[in-house]
TrEMBL record:
Protein name, entry field: Eukaryotic translation initiation factor 3 subunit H
Subunit structure: Component of the eukaryotic translation initiation factor 3 (eIF-3) complex.
Family assignment from sequence similarity: Belongs to the eIF-3 subunit H family.
Species of provenance: Folsomia candida
Domain annotation MPN: ranges: 18-151
A Pfam family matched in the record: JAB
């Protein structure tokens, strides 16, 4: 276990926030930038320690990939990295993993099953999501997530086919309750803070890109991603409606079969003949398996995250538009 003092909150999380060193952030960004052309979703492990009410992340290491692009991470590789960190007197306790993902599309079945495996083996594990697209636009985006206790119960069997509508309803679980976001605070050394202050003084006097209004392409990508996910949600809803119609039709056939059998037994009883033997209706009318509810929940989560990003992006874009309009009016008044 990678903790010294455990505290609990409503999400059964042993810490209140994540404190990550600036060096670890730079290593995550560097790895994702270098592998962006070879790997769709670069991943790596994070090392740290739980101290009081915070999780301190001090180091990271990249997961290796084969030539075919398949991840080849095993326990032996992770144990070797932790052993090397221990030899150089660094924090060597494995406390989670990180992943690079664009436009918030990380909410997939592979992702939740991987995080479930981490939290099942490492109680205080966490996943860091890095968005390279928003970072390239000047907004460093790092999010820390953990699965909620209800989501852990949902994925306890590790089989998507067992996630039925009745099971999800019994847990009172929805797409917005799958994950718990943990606040992140980036910590730098005093020397790094001094360097940042020096760079701040060296910035150019005239900056021309702060009011860049060319945001149409970014917003278009966000909207395109959200529309694709909405269409997939619609397809999952169609599967659910089709299953409900099949179940309803089967119930009607079952009721009709029982009614005909009762009429026949009544006729046989009138003639003095013995009643028909009892039959196992479950063998005649086999239950129709419902579609898994994990996929539509994850798609709904992706739509929700995309809408939040669009809302934040539009707020920033509108602020720039209003500010630029005011500046334009001021320039016109000055020229007149």
């Amino acid at each position: 276990m990678a903790h010294r003092h455990i505290r609990r909150n409503e999400f059964n999380c042993p810490f209140d926030y994540v404190q990550i060193d600036g060096l670890a952030v730079m290593k995550i960004i560097k790895h994702c930038y270098e592998e962006r052309t070879n790997i769709d979703t670069p991943r790596g492990g994070i090392l740290g320690l739980v101290i009081e009410n915070r999780l301190e992340i001090t180091n990271t290491f990249a997961f290796p990939f084969t030539k075919a692009g398949e991840e080849s991470v095993d326990e032996e590789y992770t144990a070797t990295m932790m052993m090397h960190m221990k030899k150089i007197n660094q924090d060597y306790l494995h406390v989670g993993w990180y992943q690079a993902c664009e436009l918030g599309a990380f909410v997939t079945s592979e992702f939740v099953l991987a995080q479930h495996g981490y939290q099942d083996s490492i109680e205080e594990s966490i996943v860091i999501i890095y968005d390279p697209v928003r970072t390239a636009k000047g907004f460093l985006t790092l999010k820390a997530y953990r699965l909620t206790p209800a989501a852990l119960k949902l994925l306890a069997d590790g089989n998507e086919n067992t996630i039925t509508p009745e099971f999800v309803k019994s847990l009172h679980l929805s797409y917005d309750k799958l994950f718990h976001e943990v606040p992140i605070m980036i910590r730098n050394s005093p020397l790094a803070n001094a360097l940042c202050c020096q760079l701040l003084e060296m910035k150019p006097e005239r900056a021309t890109q702060f009011l860049d209004l060319g945001t149409g392409s970014v917003l278009q990508n966000h909207m395109k991603f959200m529309l694709e996910k909405v269409d997939e949600v619609h397809q999952e809803s169609y599967k659910m409606n089709k299953w409900q119609m099949q179940v309803s039709k089967q119930q009607q056939e079952k009721a009709k079969y029982i009614h005909q059998k009762n009429l026949e037994n009544a006729a046989r009883q009138t003639k003095g003949d013995p009643a028909l033997p009892e039959e196992d209706l479950s063998k005649i009318f086999r239950p129709i398996l419902p579609p898994t509810r994990l996929t539509p929940m994850l798609l709904s989560g992706q739509v929700d995250l995309a809408s939040q990003q669009i809302n934040a992006f539009c707020s920033q874009a509108l602020a720039k538009l209003f500010l630029s309009e005011s500046l334009a009016q001021t320039n016109c008044e000055t020229s007149n």
